């Protein structure tokens, strides 16, 4: 008889360990595992999946190292057991197929799959609301393991119904990057109060699962295409972007978490950036690693001696007592060993292995067990708090802890050399962090919509094919058709499952490949090319900007989503893209004359091979056939050709317009009666129309409240610098004086502004007395009179005014009976909206879109882009009605929010959506612009934009508001970019582009640099003009003129107003402020809001929840420049020890430190100092006159530089010295 080899004996010992410590807890019928004494019979999905991984690892080891046939039989048994386990978990989930269907449509917590099931029956063990079941990481871990096991040759999925269910699980988790859940520890927020959060571990595991299922191929392991799981690469890329913005942070309440080891290394391997992996690993080991393992997160009270076991949740004030005594989990030593093995760090492997061996518990039979955790006993709590790591800890919780015991088995197999790390990763996911592929060039095919377009392009030396000239094997369809096809994939009548929800958008990466459907190769145009999605695409500059940014996005992202082949983007050029007919003439920024050259110029740039840094190749469509990525879609039950035919026939006529049939582009459905409004002739009864137009203009406005203190402080109407803000009555009595605040869009300034300001402020009967006579006459006009006027005019502006009055007086559903047909006012407004879009009359577009309450399709995606990058949004206008959006919303929920905050303001309804969409685009392409900004207040941004227009064009406030409504969406986005980057709008050239050589800058530093640049420019200009021969006195005079010019410019006041409105703070501001609050026994008082010392007991130093508490206090300050001055003072308070060289500053012990008092003291010091110097301050505060600076602070202090001998910091520091000495 042959003797077994030494390795075989050692492998048998590991198998025996598994049988005695893990398999003894297995149910013989269901193959599920459970050993929690507190919850007998509860099988956790996560624990069971890790056990499956351990059994799978043993199976692979026996298959590799088999000495005899009996070893192969052991391998088969282990493989069968592993497969049965995975099938049982799948069956548990399939029993809740109805929940999957509900959750993928609504993402409600109570519809989530359960996180644990009965070990005996596979049914649920508790109610939907009795546990934190919504754990995206658990479901994703199962799918990741399913893909890895399948890739190794074991078949888990057995039939097409199971394939359909797995496909629906993909739809279930693919929104994980924007779905707050309870996380890996099942309780959400660290206070255990059931608050869901966006968790980095969940997002990472979702990304890993999607990538693995995309890479595994078919689930039947036989090459059949019917068992292929379809994953949209855009969802993978979204997860990557969110992870990059979050790591090494776990969530709002956890500044880091040891569970992040599961995503930066085994089993997920989902972070490709090696620097980010190292940063996350170092953060965990430096902040959480102890002698017995890692703490889960800071101030984790689970199983500590001070935890009140009688209740599940913690009081916020008690979290600080858990600091330094958190339980340590040996589980994470296993993860650190695996991470070191995959990183090939042998020294770290040995160190962590010795540490793990020292904390294992021996069973009575001599087996090595991994306990759940180690806790400090109650009598040792005080000593441990005084010196962390000095006290012995005792094992607690389940022993063995099945999750940790399974990982220990895997570590043993790798440490003993039975397996190599690569054999536990058949999909080679581990290589993504080490092997970087160069960006893949983007293939671009330009097609002309018609012969006219093709001819015009040819005149510009651009040769392209027409849509009807491409090879018949190709079929071009809009992206919306792909959404409908995906809704068919994953359908199962038996399980009552549908496919992918239709309301989910299809991303750009998904439309950048060929789809083989039956005998056709289908190409889907990018979704942003569909003009009918929103009016934004009628702005050609926005469209071409999308071309540039999206091609760059594909270029940078394609390789990271693991798609074989190159991307292909098909752009269809329509006649409207080349036409300059009807371009808006309202804007002062001369962009419209470049409209035609924009599209042609973009195509010429593409043809050169580079566009905005992206490598592109432009050829005919057929030339890319062999190199393009192809995805085959199969539909069970046949009917593929019928589906394509029906869908394509409907959609092509809907989207592809010809230049000859302009009426087809009007926004009235074909089935509705049509009354085409002509354009050209003006209304003849000018007096009647004048009344109508005035009534319409009265309601066309951004409803900026003249009593809004935010707006008052943001005014930059330089024409009226010397005047005080007028009261409503003063405005009525003196109609020739334009109001100081930003007003409404008006055509006749004197009379209408007076009327509207009065009516806006006073809704009672007193305001009726100032309403002009024409309002009463307007109310006497009948609908027939208005309809006659409508038929009399063919001017779009006049048509809009008349239909607007019909809307206001008779309602949108009033039947006008035009041409003896049923034509409602709403239908007429829809047609006006369509024509305004075609003519690019942006003021009319925004008015009609707001009245029709049109929600831009890009809004939901833009809100999500901002939120998942931890940027909250406030909709509405300051001092009126604001509503904060803190988590992703459905389109219906967003629509309700918009109605609540902008119900009576149609222009703001539309303009705010455009701003959010622009911000969502910029946060993807320019994330550095949003550093240290946590809440974006859209109302304040609108006011800043209007103020900047007033300053830039030297307009009154009312005219600036008027101008803001008429600028194009691209101009609006350009202004936003300039404000966020800290640039002056003057730096933008006429074509709307900033000098590419200048880097993007934000904050005070950018303004200081701009001042120096402008001084240098002035000096060089003067020298070129012949100032070389000036005397020294003349040079000094010139220099003083330059300084005076800069002083008059008001650059620092403007900067503080803009940064205050954007809620921007310096780097590391919140952590520094946490230190300050922690030093103050009674906290800080800011604007009558107290940041109490107790906040530091609840929240850690870099916790985002603390940052949001600070933002809540700062947002109570209505004057943005004062807010920014408060931020400067708080920043200096964080450097108190460095500023004041004394042992013990006199910190107030009986009251909060009053920051406002420090600023008032600084202002007093500033005024006295400047009185001695005889500066311009003598003209206001220094001379005893009242200054119009916010909060009684001299306006010249606001307009002072932050640093320097005469800077704000100098005076604030002097005030602090008085307060603390």
List keywords for this structure.
1221 residues; alpha/beta; five-stranded mixed β-sheet; 23 strands; GH15-like; lipoprotein
* Strand residues, percent: 5-15%
Give the beta-strand count. Answer: 23
Structural class: alpha/beta
What is the global morphology? globular
From the structure provided, what is the oligomeric state, counting identical versus distinct chains? single chain
Question: pLDDT average, as an integer?
Answer: 80
Radius of gyration over all CA atoms, rounded: 34 Å
The number of helical elements comes to 46
Task: Kindly report how far apart the N and C termini lie.
Answer: 92 Å
Largest sheet: 5 strands, mixed
Q: What ranges have pLDDT less than 50 throughout 5 or more consecutive residues?
A: 581-596, 647-680, 705-778, 987-1032, 1034-1048
Roughly how much helix do the residues carry, as a percent range?
A: 40-55%
Function: Phosphorylase b kinase catalyzes the phosphorylation of serine in certain substrates, including troponin I. The alpha chain may bind calmodulin.
Domain GH15-like: 9-939
Pfam family, one: KPBB_C
Main location: membrane
